Amino acid sequence: MKLTKLALHWQILIALVLAAIMGSITGTEGSLFGIHWMPVYVFIGTLFLNALKMIVVPLVVSAIISGIGAIGDKGGFGRLGLKTLGYYVMTSFIAIMIGLVLVNIIQPGVTHAPPPVIEQNDHVAAAVEGKGMGDIANVFLRMIPTNIVQAAADGQMLGLIFFSLLFGYFLTKIHGEPRTVMQNFWQGLFDVMMHMTDWVMKFAPLGVFGLVAASIAKTGFDQFGNLALFFLTVTLALAVHFFVVMPLILKFLGGVKNPWLHYQAMLPALLTAFSTSSSASTLPVTMESVEERAGVSNRISSFVLPLGATVNMDGTALYECVAAIFIAQLFGVHLDLATQLLIVFVALTTSIGVAGIPSASLVAISIILVAVGLPAEAIGLLLVVDRLLDMMRTTVNIFSDSVGAVVIARSEGESDVLSEKHF
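Predicted structure:
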């Protein structure tokens, strides 16, 4: 079988193994045929990161504007739309806060080992301090840029996200041909950026090789103990959201007497989500399970689930928050309350904006890191454990969508949902 025919995650796994071998053999001074390997690692990793950064601004802006505009096309700002959006924001926020609390309690990135990129450590701390987030008021001031073009050039994602949310909302307030033209433009731009992201991600194995090999060449395997603790932290946070928060929502918001029936109803979709790591690919199975096994009407499921597959990403939002704070801990950077609140806000909005694309967490985490002044190069470390975590967080995403469909259906008077006759 040709290497290019392998699934992307297998290519990345092979790249990780090769990076570990090469980085440990060559170190920072190793050379072959007169070529020093360290600059090669840095060049490959930087090239991949630059490609990711290149697509961030148009991708996020077009995703948010087209997504909000599409809700308006469906009459989504009526009663049903407000309920759906309210549920999405609530559950994503709860998921992020669970991750925030656990990563601060467990502190998986706290280590006595050198930081992943030793020579940049002082610059990292200065960059975070230079963000000027000594108080919460500054966070809100950064939401409204004086020049949106300059904000895009400077990578001020907080202001861009806020502008995009406003633009998408007010797009739904115009009518006729101007709205159609604008909606088609932003949707077309988003579709193009999706294809560009797919193309960039084909080079992910090379990028991962460069990033991880450079890190191992500098610090050896010092960070792998921290990565194991990071993996356990994310897994525990996802489990709390999946097994504690979701049943409570079903019981107290959905009025479901036995929430565990819903786990039984959604089993086919959960297994599909875990194996594919794709909310979009799982959507047909999710809709079938929600309608046929849970008893939700097509009127509710056809609106709530397709929308949820792109904008309701509890697991992804949780992962983004934990990953950003974990990286800050690795670099020994203290994040004050205002900075952590900024991470919460950006994680919430980016999980809505880019969740529908392949490997969305890479783009979203890079946005958060840039927003708080942390190095995007540290993304390479996360890829060591990302595949399995991706499977788990996608499962959480899908289950939250289905819970939302049940809760909204019950609020709309569908008392037959999750009744015993379905089992």
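Summary: The radius of gyration is 22 Å.
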